[in-house]
Amino acid sequence: MTGKEIRLGRIRDEESGNFVTVPMDHGVTIGPVDGLNGIHETIDAIGRGGGDSVLVHKGVVEHTFEKVQEDVGLIVHLNAATDVGPDPNNKVVVGEVKRAVRLGADAVSVHINVGSETEPHQLQDLGRIADECDEYGMPLLAMTYVRGPEVEANVENVAHATRLGAELGADVVKTSYIGDPEEYRSVIEGCPVPVVLAGGPKAETKREVLADIREAMDVGARGVAMGRNVFQQDDVEAMTRAVSRVVHDGASVEEALSEVER
To answer: Is this structure's pTM higher than 0.85?
Structure first.
């Protein structure tokens, strides 16, 4: 077993082989939103709820993880942009794989916006970081989104963005749900590595979130990488447990909702 395989085992469920990851890198992008203050308590709640891993920037690891009590996998995010800058779609590298190794990361992640004006350098960054990951035996999660001034997030473009993540060396690809399960099936079938569902903005209801997860899992998704729809809930532990029931146990939406309606 390689180092990469060992680390992948720390960020996915042993029995189902699926992923429940909660990204919390939003502090760089949109600031200290609800759910990110007292972040170690949020991480503990995710661990208690059955989440497999959390995704954060390097500074959170250095200043917070010594307070974390629950056993949960660690993914360190390596690029960023802010929503107050001149181009929020321009993700730039802010970390290194070797530092993630020193921090004890089980994986690293990179976000790219396909169709953005700065797509070329983001593709270069993804390819270079994938090579570094192979050198260190580090799994790579690629977040591939279709975002730009003149690009539509239709099934063809989402499938293209998802596929290129795998082509450039990612071990897992996170991409948006496009609302139609059969179209999402074609996205997944076009990608040779596991695809996990992105959460996007906070949804109006928990049912909506769980229904999207159930539909995505039914057509071949291998889990979720879902942030605000988990860490901004009133009961983070219960919502994580509900998501985990769907992803790992094959639960229905109604069965999963029972976890958050108790």
So the answer is: yes
